[in-house]
User: What shape does this take?
Amino acid sequence: MSPRHPAVAEALRLHRARGRDAAHATLLEGPHLVAAAVAAGVALGTVFVVADDAAGRDLAVRGRGDAVVVDEATLRRLGTTETPQSPVAVISVPPPAVSVGGRVIVAWGVADPGNCGTLIRIAAAFGYGFLAGPQCAEPWSPKVLRSAAGAHFALSLGRIAAVDEARAGGRILVATVARGGAVPGPLPDAAAILVGNEAHGLPDDVVAAADRRVTIPTSGLVESLNAAVAGAIVAYLGAAGPGTNLPVP
Assistant: This one.
């Protein structure tokens, strides 16, 4: 298929945030991510496969998508990694969840797509929902999707513009801070863990609005932990304990 084919041209526009916003669509790359979407019942759009990718064509059929055979050069253009794997699928981006109940992780200014995707995966692993706050990386970008490794399809994902929106459902706000907070531990069923920007952490006004502040004890040889690592530790300790299926530390 020619790179000028309309289906290819439309998919290439999804490499940019502007194109994804206009089409309300994004790209899934590789068999594992596409299979996760199909397993979750997501309807696929166009599914680009190389000629010898029988498994990719099967995923297209199972996902009610339209399989389109492309050559390796076109697949490389469609992919968003150096060595993309077939298939590459177009999916519609669902609207943000109106209501995300229970415990949530809130990514507030988490700008790195890898950290954002990892936090989504952490949320799914420990039974949380996920809220994207201001200046967060685009949750449905291909880079975030790859980092989350299919977790988008296993949880509720919403957006908030103001910190008080995280209180929905009677949640308490738990700010992760580099110093001066209490040691993390079990959290109520209604709690929002606020994880801040990689370089600057949470804004002062967001920290001031929180009901609790938690700091992960370290040796002091490093200034702070990676945002996703910190989120994982606080989320695990928050969910572990009586009444959960997670082991108590």
